[in-house]
UniProtKB/TrEMBL annotation:
GO function term, MF aspect, one: oxidoreductase activity, acting on the CH-OH group of donors, NAD or NADP as acceptor
Keyword set includes Cell inner membrane: no
Family: Belongs to the D-isomer specific 2-hydroxyacid dehydrogenase family.
Name of this chain's protein: D-isomer specific 2-hydroxyacid dehydrogenase NAD-binding protein
CDD domains xrefs: 2-Hacid_dh_1
Amino acid sequence: MAKSIVCLQPLTKEQVEAIRKAAPGYTFVQCDAKQPDLEALAEAEIVISWAKGISGLLLREGTPLRWVQAWSAGVDKLPLDRLEQRGIVLTNASGVHAEPISQVIFGYMLMFVRNLHTAIRNQDRRIWNSDETETELTGKTVVIAGTGEIGAATARIAKAFGMRTIGVRRIDDPLPGFDAMYTTSRLKDAVAEGDFVINTLPLTGETRGLFDASVFSSFKEGSYYINIGRGGTTDTEALIEALENGRLRGAGLDVFEAEPLPEDHPLWDMKQVIITPHVAGLTDHYSNRLVGIFTENMKSYLAHGAPTVNVVDYLRQY
């Protein structure tokens, strides 16, 4: 049986050629995730991306599947337990999103400090008005929960704006770009210092519902919350309460517990909230960056039998 790679995402001719060049001796099949080529998947040693309804086929005993390259950084929607049981290596798209998402984060932040979100609403109604509360990012403190590629890029840009940066992660070892570091167990202490709190966390057993009422009650009064990680890390009702009671001055939200956000959801009517439809990571550079990760991993896979970049730790779930 010929060794094969199956990709469930659209790629350009140049990207396909890059994969073929990096994987001599492998056949390459490209198909649509909505209508996957089941025959090709059944024979695949490597699969790029995932799709609904293919778990039973790919994860049954005896299949040649050895490696899955996820199309996203978050892997919470994949059958992690079954992948681990089969001994299949899983790599994610960490690093692909750092540039677009960090830019979205600063888009939110700049809109809030310059009241641009209010100006846009006033423009729709032809109202010339300012409440003269405009400020700037200079001198503000940003707390970044999650110090991976996105968090690191955000911290780097924040320093260029003259901001103080605080990181939150599992260990409190210092990292470049961060003025201070807190462990996740000290999240409440960290958010109490932030003018802006940025949530870049993946959804895992440890992070689900992490931002709850007790954490929001610890936020600095009049601060802002931005979530571009996963909606399930935040207790939405607690977030709404913090917005309504004034603990939070505003929120920039790209991800939600329920997506799409229901039309009757109260967040839609909150003028201090900026909502984007889970698009922070989208960019026309996405495929190129992911193919770059895959082809680099293919070198180590061919040389040593396993990829080395962005390998998911099944215990941590990222």
